[in-house]
Design goal:
The protein is an all-alpha fold. Helix content is 73%, strand content 0%. The protein has 7 helices and no strands. Helix 1 packs antiparallel against helix 2 and helix 2 packs parallel to helix 7. The chain is globular. It starts with 20 loop residues before the first helix and ends with a helix.
């Protein structure tokens, strides 16, 4: 993760918040755990795909919603509304995938959830580029979500293993991004706390 171009004192949300790394690392853990499941489960059934993929989308959405206060945004501010909408869409898609099982259903629901959430994260990142420490990460994460959503429909006819592989691949890439971001934020928060 790279720091914004503006000096720390010029924007109220450009300084790393002491607890911002926690929701970022939790999001990374959820993505990497799901990615590991998709790698090591050789022949998942449609039910496993629904449960694993649905729980991943649901947990990512909930973690995104819970992490909004740590970003420094109010839920009624424009960036807070965008991130809230992204989290709500992911959580809704995840709940749908958990409750209703099927290759076509999972492919469509996951593509819509990841696509809408990715577009909102991308827009939020572009809007706040240079003014928030997570802006570049939101841009990258949004692009990964949009890319995953764009290619997912082409794998519906290949079944559960292929669908989980596509979503899991995007999860691993974004999980690595969020791990690097979270560790950088944690390091910066500790360094700031030690500075008199």
């Amino acid at each position: 993760m790279t720091q914004p171009r503006t000096p720390a004192g010029t924007a109220s949300d450009s300084r790393p918040r002491p607890d911002l790394w926690k929701p970022v690392l939790l999001r990374a853990v959820a993505a990497l755990l799901f990615g590991a499941v998709t790698i090591f489960w050789a022949a998942p059934s449609v039910e496993v795909m629904g449960w694993a993929g649905g729980l991943y989308l649901l947990s990512t959405g909930v973690l995104l919603l819970r992490g909004i206060p740590a970003t420094g945004f109010q839920r009624d501010a424009a960036p807070g509304k965008m991130l809230s909408a992204a989290g709500a869409v992911l959580a809704g898609a995840g709940l749908s995938a958990v409750l209703l099982h099927g290759d076509l259903l999972f492919g469509v629901v996951a593509a819509v959830g990841l696509g809408v959430a990715g577009a909102l994260e991308l827009f939020c990142g572009l809007t706040l580029r240079g003014r928030h420490v997570l802006a570049r990460d939101w841009i990258t994460s949004g692009a990964i979500g949009l890319g995953t959503a764009a290619i997912l429909p082409f794998f519906i006819h290949l079944g559960a293993h292929a669908l989980l592989g596509v979503v899991g691949g995007g999860a691993i890439i974004s999980g690595v991004l969020w791990v690097l971001s979270g560790l950088t934020l944690r390091h910066d928060a500790r360094r700031t706390a030690q500075t008199p």
